[in-house]
Amino acid sequence: xxxxxxxxxxxxxxxxGFFVVALLxxxxxxAAGNAFLHQSALQDRCDAAALAVGATALQVGRDHGxxxxxxxxxxxxxxIAAFLQRHRGQESLSIHSRIxxxxxxxxxxxxxNMPVALGFLFGRASLTHHASSTTSAPTxx
Length: 141
Prior knowledge:
The chain is of the alpha+beta class. The protein has helices at 2-7, 11-64, 73-86, 119-122, and strands at 93-99, 105-115, 126-136. It has one domain (11-136). A hairpin with a 5-residue loop joins β1 (93-99) and β2. The radius of gyration is 26 Å and the shape is rod-shaped. The mean pLDDT is 81.
């Protein structure tokens, strides 16, 4: 009889352990899904910024009757500043551009500091996401 009493209640810690592990798996899944959604939204913003830069090059060519198959660095910076002005709600969004050597394409790099879902469990309240997009100047035939 003493052997059965020694094992009495040993299932409770096992069930609690499994419950804690299950909660951590669920929390990790939620955090990973949230991070994926934030990354996707940042990529969308970066693509939109690249399109704004491309549209600016095309518009400058039309307005001034000049070749629009090359980017003007000043106009690229103006387009990015205008894009950031239109998207003021994202204070932590930073956008940088790099024009290719022949000035026919621009790479737009975006970074944003975003909150981590259930970050208190993982020891990080926020995470910096990065995305990039490239646009090419339209060519004339």
